[in-house]
Amino acid sequence: MEMNLQQHYSHIRKVLILVLVLNWAVAFAKIIYGLTSRCSSMAADGFHSLADGTSNIIGLIGIHFACQPRDEDHPYGHKKYETFFSLGIAALLFLVCFELIQEGIRRLIKPVTPEINTASFIVMLLTLGVNFWVMNYERKKGTALRSDILVSDAMHTRADIFTSFSVIVTLVAIKLGFPLLDAIATLLIALFIAHAAFDIIKDSSRILCDTVVLEEKRITDIVLGVKGVRNCHKIRTRGRPDDIYVDLHVQVNPDMHVDNAHRISYAIEDAIKTGIPEVTDVVVHIEPKD
Q1: Between the chain's N and C termini, which has fewer beta carbons within 10 Å?
Q2: What is the pLDDT of residues 59-71, one digit of tens each?
Q3: Entry pTM
Q4: What are the structural domains, with CATH classification, of the chain?
């Protein structure tokens, strides 16, 4: 089990390293060209991509802690560290958002006309293509590996795609003689980033606050199919989508011998884990059916 856990996080780590390299290549291309051409929206988009790369580093740190085996102090394992560190990505996004709002307001007060040429569009189109590939790749891997870090980072990159597209539209507007749209686009980019951060916090908080993961009916249907079970209630589920914990009360005949009741509890655990492979732990409380 622990070996499978190590292999699981090894795959996630490889994805993050590849994405980190691509994100920073995209970031430096947009930042350097944005600063030299005095295009604040392009530079802002570059800093957003740089934040993407920094979030990859946060993800790698989170993976380091999450892949640790269970120990005496952490009998449920360390997987929630992955969810916890995804909040760090959201915090970083809010920080970038704040900086971009300040820059956008400064540009509205003191407008600057950027230098836009063919190279500006080439840089943005190439980096947009890289971002689109990274988002799809990371989202597919995150879904397949059930990784909060990868899914959160894919959402981060999705925001980068929206902002890059808005920058391209802004470049066209500036070329047509509307330089003020550069500052407006910077503010819109900040809103895109804030929305992505909010989505990450919303999803992560559901896990960290032990929100219900599975429908009760799904558990009930499985448990009532076990021979000897009369009824079940007080069903509770929590955890990550790939690491679900279930506890429930099961009613049996009041004259049933304790050995038989014990066997039924094991049968219930096996049935739930077989029917829902994402479940890693089941606690069954046996009680008499009055």
Answers
A1: C
A2: 777 777 777 777 7
A3: 0.66
A4: 2-208 (1.20.1510.10), 216-288 (3.30.70.1350)
